[in-house]
Structure formats: C-alpha cells, structure tokens
Write a structure and sequence with these properties.
mainly beta
Length: about 300
C-alpha cells in the first residue's frame, strides 16, 4: 500500500478458537511494529454473530501520514475470561510505500518567462518532519529579495506540503534566482534552514525602431535604426549590447514566408543601424532570437512601397 498526505487504514483480522473445556476469549489486542521502532497497539472487536470461543476478531489500524515507509510486523495478544494470555508474534506483515515528493519545486519550470504584467511563481516545499510555519525567499542576481509565507495545503504539521504563490514584478532582473526556505518546528521556536533551489528568469526585450524611407524606388535601400533594450541583470534598464539581429521581409502575397534579408549586431548601448532591400512591396521589420537572459522579440512592421 502507498501512503501520501492522508491516513492509511489497514484491516487487521485474526481467528481464534478455544478448546471444548478451555475458557472463552475475553479480548484480543494487536501490536504493530514498524521501521525505526515505530509501535502502535489497538483493541480488536469480535465480529457480530460470532462466538467468543470460535470467532474472527478485527479492527482498522489508521497509519498517520508521517508513519515511516517499510515493512510492518503484526502480533496478537489474546486474553481469556479467566485472565490467561496467549501471544502470537509475527503473525502477519504488510509493507507501506511513500509517494515521492521533491523537497522544493518551482512552477513554471526553469526558465521562468516574464510577462508584461509580471509573473507569479508557485513554490512547493515538502516537509517530512514537524513544521509549524514556513516561508520562502527569492533572491535575484542583483541581490533584491522577495519573501512570502508558505501555507500548509496538504497533509499535516508532521508530514505535509507547504505552498505559496510569489509575485515577481515586471522589473525583476533576468538571470539566476535563488529560492531558499526556512521553517519553525513549533510556535516561538527558532527558524531552521530548509531546502534551496534555483531557476532562471528570462526577461522581456523591447525594440525602438524607425524605417526611412518607406516609399522607395526599386533597388534603393530602406534604413532601419533603433535600439534593443531590456531590464538588466543589475536591476537597471538599458540597451542590450552585442546582440545579433535579423532584418526580415515578407512581400504582399498570400502564403508568402518571411525572408532574412540582412543582419546587424547592436553596439555597446544596444543601438543599431542597418539597410534592407525590398524587391517588391511588403512588410519589413527587425527580429531577435533571444538568449538565456531574454525572450525572443520583434519590432513593429513597416510597409514598404515601391514606386
């Protein structure tokens, strides 16, 4: 059987029959021993309609969520109406398995992509030990931190899943973010360090582009100039240097595919200036494939007219 965040019930049953002249059975107890010295006892009940001298005794054993995984041994102690006792050890056994849970997980998985409205990141902290309270701290590449309390969402304080939705503002720095946790075992106790993990944040990028002229003679160039910018790893906002951009063109025809017609690398401030040639009327724009810190981006499109 498998245990997760809910108690697991095990039906314990034994059959007892007394001799013709022997005293009848007054009561039966079951003793359960698990891994690491875990022990629990419970009183069995005689099934309705059975005799105390020849009957089945049973009861449900409830294992708490934090009960250890492994092999459990069951013994039975019967007591007669005259006080005599009979013990049968290792009369039965069963095995309990545990559902595997990551100590700390982040959703969505790395990389986390920023949106124009910010991004919520869900943190799940699994604690197999007593935990009364917990919190998580996000630390960005620029040292900025975001701290949020965790709530118990499954199981109990002895074996449970703690979770929080952490809002990251759209101004968050791109790069590697550290996720750390801390928990308290009891009210008023000190905080203990919990598991730690990391995720990569990919920020948005933004184009500022102009195209001149947009009405040309056939064979004349269109000059596209502008800047590629974004939130920097130090937390500031500025141009993205040394990024390779593509000048794209799609002529005005049904089903026509975009074509790469030129490329350019941004300067130290994210600026660029590049020429593009259009053989036919159509749309021209600048595109960037993105990298580990930034998501792909495209500029606005410009309609090019040929005289």
């Amino acid at each position: 059987m498998t245990s997760d965040f809910s108690p697991v019930s095990v039906l314990l049953v034994t059959h007892l029959k007394s001799g013709a002249k022997a005293p009848w059975t007054k009561g039966v107890q079951a003793w359960v021993t698990g891994p690491g010295g875990w022990k629990q006892s419970l009183t069995l009940k005689l099934w309705k309609g059975q005799s105390h001298s020849d009957g089945n005794w049973s009861n449900w054993l409830s294992l708490p969520p934090h009960a250890p995984a492994g092999s459990y041994s069951v013994g039975f102690l019967a007591t007669s109406s005259t006080g005599q006792k009979a013990w049968r050890g290792a009369a039965a056994s069963f095995t309990v398995g545990k559902v595997g849970h990551a100590p700390l997980s982040v959703t969505p998985g790395s990389p986390v992509t920023m949106t124009a409205k910010g991004r919520d990141v869900t943190v799940k902290f699994f604690s197999p030990t007593r935990t009364n309270a917990a919190y998580t701290t996000f630390t960005g590449p620029n040292g900025k931190t975001v701290t949020t309390g965790l709530s118990l969402v499954a199981g109990n304080v002895n074996y449970g899943m703690w979770q929080a939705s952490v809002p990251l503002p759209v101004t968050s720095a791109p790069g590697s973010w550290r996720v750390s946790t801390a928990y308290a075992a009891a009210p008023g106790s000190g905080w203990r360090a919990g598991p730690t993990t990391f995720f990569a944040l990919r920020q948005l990028s933004a184009f500022t582009v102009t195209a001149k002229p947009t009405t040309i003679k056939r064979g004349s160039p269109v000059v596209l100039s502008g800047r590629l910018a974004g939130r920097l790893p130090n937390g500031g906002y500025g141009g993205l240097a040394k990024r390779r951009l593509q000048v794209m063109f799609r002529w005005n025809a049904g089903g026509a595919n975009p074509q790469k017609i030129n490329s350019v690398t941004t300067d130290a401030k994210g600026g660029f200036r590049v020429s593009g040639y259009a053989a036919r009327p159509g749309w021209m724009w600048v595109a960037w494939a993105g990298d580990g810190l930034y998501q792909p981006g495209t500029s606005r499109g410009f309609w090019i007219t040929i005289k």
